[in-house]
Design goal:
It holds the Pfam family MDD_C. Belongs to the diphosphomevalonate decarboxylase family. Keywords: ATP-binding, Lipid biosynthesis, Lipid metabolism, Lyase, Nucleotide-binding. This is diphosphomevalonate decarboxylase. It is built from eight helices and 14 strands. α1 packs parallel to α2 and α2 crosses α3. About 35% of the residues lie in helices and about 25% in strands. A hairpin with a 6-residue loop joins β11 and β12. Bound molecules: ligand DP6.
Length: about 325
């Protein structure tokens, strides 16, 4: 039928991180964030609204999976459709997603998944939402997904509005305007990390550093915006590492502690410092898991990949360029 759409969205990695919620129901972040979208990792999602479906179905890499968060986003799409008088408002949907990277490799990111879902579901419903609305829709699935609607460098605004209408991402700079590379060092396949949603709520509830994290966010965001504006790679890299380590200090002081690193994660961090001592401009950042992402200039990517692959416990190192905005596949 005509109620199908397919979309692709790329993963992203935050340079100034999101951790903590302002409103858990609207999934608005307590702090803004700045990220780069990654070309090498993406999700393709097909959405079909159809009659005769008892519930929404979610198929991930061909396996029936939990649809709770998917239904939450689809309910918002059905709400928009109802306000436009579209017939898809009353229908359930089949959602099928595939990642271009092996599922369970510890690279799975809700960011690319919910950005692709926002674009495909709104398209299948018959809606043509502007990027800002797509970003808000993706945010309801996962905060980091709001940034994956955009390519290149993106900034997510924490917002202040009670209804979440100003908590969206937007593009800061096109990827063609400052090509950078990210080397992803995989230290653990099939990681079993504590889910971000749970982890950030625990940090808010228990870490004595949480207030300092909130208070210092705007300064980091302003400095990162300046580094991007000036194409100052050293400033971008130093600030990314600093903000990453500040996040992990917050995680480590959460009760119970959120220790996302393994031995190879730490070895990779030292290897990046070693690269800098040898004159290669490279900086690491780490999310809620053990993988290490290394920021560098495209001309240094092969040397960085080589160095990362030699780190004990690193299984694989992949090079990514910066990626495009989410788009429809038809
Ligand atoms: C460490 O976006 O996964 O990757 O909104 O609860 O789904 P929810 O959280 P999520 O958190 C991402 C945390 C992070 C930092 C970041 O991407 O900014």
């Amino acid at each position: 039928g005509g109620a199908t759409a397919v979309a692709r969205a790329h993963s992203n990695i935050a340079l100034v991180k999101y951790w903590g919620k302002r409103d858990a129901t609207l999934n608005t972040p307590a702090v803004g964030s700045i990220s780069v979208t990654l070309d090498a990792l993406y999700t393709d999602t097909r959405v079909t609204f159809a009659p005769d479906l008892a519930v929404d179905e979610f198929w991930l890499a061909g396996c029936r999976s939990d649809a709770t968060r998917i239904t939450h986003v689809l309910d918002l799409v059905r709400g928009y459709a109802a306000s436009m008088g579209l017939p898809t408002a009353g229908l359930n949907a089949v959602v099928s997603s595939t990642n271009n990277f092996p599922t369970g490799a510890g690279l799975a990111s809700s960011a690319s998944g919910f950005a692709a879902l926002a674009l495909a579901a709104s398209g299948a419903a018959g809606l043509a939402l502007p990027a800002r609305e797509l970003s808000i829709l993706a945010r309801h699935g996962s905060g980091s997904a709001a940034r994956s609607i955009f390519g290149g460098f993106a900034e997510m605004h924490a917002g202040t509005a009670a209804d979440g209408s100003d908590a969206y991402a937007e593009e800061l700079l096109d990827r063609a305007d400052w090509p950078l590379a990210v080397v992803v060092a995989i230290t653990e396949h099939g990681e079993k990390s504590i889910n971000s949603t749970i982890g950030m709520n625990e940090s808010k509830a228990s870490s004595p550093f949480y207030q300092a994290w909130l208070d210092s966010a705007d300064g980091d965001l302003a400095e990162m915006r300046g580094a991007i504006h000036d194409r100052d790679f050293t400033r971008l890299g130093e600030l990314s590492e600093y903000n990453c380590l500040k996040l992990h200090a917050l995680m480590l002081t959460t009760r119970p502690a959120l220790i996302y690193w393994n031995a190879a994660t730490v070895a990779a961090m030292h290897a990046v410092q070693g690269l800098r001592a040898a004159g290669v401009s490279a900086y690491f950042t780490i999310d809620a898991g053990p993988q290490v992402k290394v920021l560098c200039r495209p001309g240094d990517a092969a040397a960085v990949q080589h160095a990362m692959a030699l780190v004990p416990g690193v299984h694989e190192a992949r090079i990514s360029a910066l990626g495009p905005a989410a788009f429809r596949l038809e």
